[in-house]
């Protein structure tokens, strides 16, 4: 499936740099998280008195901290696969293969540094902490979009949209779904767009995060067997954990193998990289379905131009743009979790109204 359909990001030096920053964060994942999750705690333990260490040892804490390395290693193996199959960066399958065969993390760093020097002719810039921290949310979003466990959440958010589409474009009637174009802006890891394309609609997912695009590219194009990959998405969090086994819970993905379900020649599904507002400037009308809360992406970024609306203000502006709200099909009382860790002692619930609105074609 084409990743950057309709865009020319690969000719743009700034975009290529942004892509490489994401790739570097995948490659650096293991070193960063082993230091952050394991080494720092083990070093704190050495500062404790012998009595305190004995006390901790008796609860299994020290053993638990050491076990984290293997979970981090498994996540790292997944990210190396993502790098090996990434369609855009100069980093290639060779570096991913080489790194996968090394067990010592200091040696990983050395190989990675040499690789960087040869490729870029300069010393490696360490992957930035925000990029590395985002890898946690990519793993959590994999649970939401591509695991059996995520079906609970998908049933609350994606299923109402799919039900609506099936009802309004019934397959058995004379309705040509392949000529019905559906756009999923901010498609994340692409599950909703994939489900819509599986109903034979022409569907394009759009996403401006290279992290999301590169991970979804791997899942959508290269995962041929269900449950063939194992990740440990909850290993990074030490707060609100009931039992150690909850933190080490493994999740297998994908619950369905997307590339075997979409037919070989299917040209009814694509993912487009880039800013939704830039790519789809010309709005000719159509049907809008939105399920979700109101997270304003740039709220805490003073350098961005951002005015955050309430839900009521958003509905008013929608109507000023010519949309007609369909209150019968909308559901203003829906609630769902987002990227839920159902074993955590902390769970969030969002109000996620489903809004259906039409804009007549001019
Ligand atoms: C909260 S996530 C939701 C992802 C997915 N729809 C889901 O339900 O799991 C929102 C996504 O929208 C993307 N996004 C935000 N603003 C965007 C824009 N202007 N153009 C394209 N993608 C955007 C973000 O990168 C993020 O992956």
TrEMBL record:
PANTHER family: CARNOSINE N-METHYLTRANSFERASE. This is carnosine N-methyltransferase. It is an enzyme of class 2 (transferase). Belongs to the carnosine N-methyltransferase family. One of its GO terms (molecular function) is carnosine N-methyltransferase activity. The keyword Transferase applies. GO terms for biological process: methylation. It comes from Smittium simulii. Keywords: Methyltransferase, S-adenosyl-L-methionine, Transferase. InterPro entries: CARME, SAM-dependent_MTases_sf. Pfam families: CARME. Its EC number is 2.1.1.22.
């Amino acid at each position: 499936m084409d990743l950057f359909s309709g865009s020319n990001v690969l000719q743009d030096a700034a975009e290529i740099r942004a892509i490489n920053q994401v790739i570097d964060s995948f490659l650096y994942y293991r070193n960063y998280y082993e230091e952050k999750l394991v080494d720092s705690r083990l070093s704190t333990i050495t500062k404790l008195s012998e009595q305190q260490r004995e006390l901790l040892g008796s609860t299994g804490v020290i053993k638990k901290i050491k076990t984290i390395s293997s979970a981090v290693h498994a996540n790292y193996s997944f990210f190396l696969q993502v790098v090996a199959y990434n369609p855009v960066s100069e980093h290639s399958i060779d570096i991913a293969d080489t790194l996968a065969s090394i067990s010592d993390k200091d040696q990983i760093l050395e190989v990675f540094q040499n690789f960087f020097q040869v490729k870029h002719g300069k010393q490696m810039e360490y992957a930035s902490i925000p990029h590395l921290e985002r890898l946690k949310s990519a793993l959590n979003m994999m649970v939401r979009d591509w695991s059996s466990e995520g079906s609970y959440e998908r049933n609350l958010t994606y299923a109402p949209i799919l039900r609506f589409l099936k009802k309004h474009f019934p397959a058995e009637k004379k309705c040509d779904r392949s000529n019905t174009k559906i756009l999923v802006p901010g498609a994340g890891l692409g599950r909703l767009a994939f489900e819509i394309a599986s109903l034979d609609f022409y569907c394009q997912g759009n996403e401006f995060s290279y992290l999301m695009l590169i991970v979804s590219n791997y899942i959508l194009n290269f995962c041929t067997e269900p449950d063939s990959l194992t990740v440990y998405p909850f290993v990074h969090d030490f707060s609100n954990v009931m039992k150690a086994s909850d933190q080490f819970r493994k999740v297998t993905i994908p619950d369905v193998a997307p590339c075997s379900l979409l037919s070989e020649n299917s040209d009814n599904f694509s993912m487009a990289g880039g800013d939704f507002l830039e790519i789809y400037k010309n709005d000719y009308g159509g049907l809008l379905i939105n399920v979700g809360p109101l997270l304003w992406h740039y709220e805490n970024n003073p350098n961005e131009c951002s005015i955050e609306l309430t839900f009521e203000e958003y509905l008013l502006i929608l109507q000023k743009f010519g949309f007609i709200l369909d209150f019968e099909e909308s559901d203003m009382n829906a609630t769902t979790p987002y990227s839920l860790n159902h074993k955590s002692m902390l769970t969030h619930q969002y109000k996620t109204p489903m809004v259906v609105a039409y804009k007549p074609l001019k």
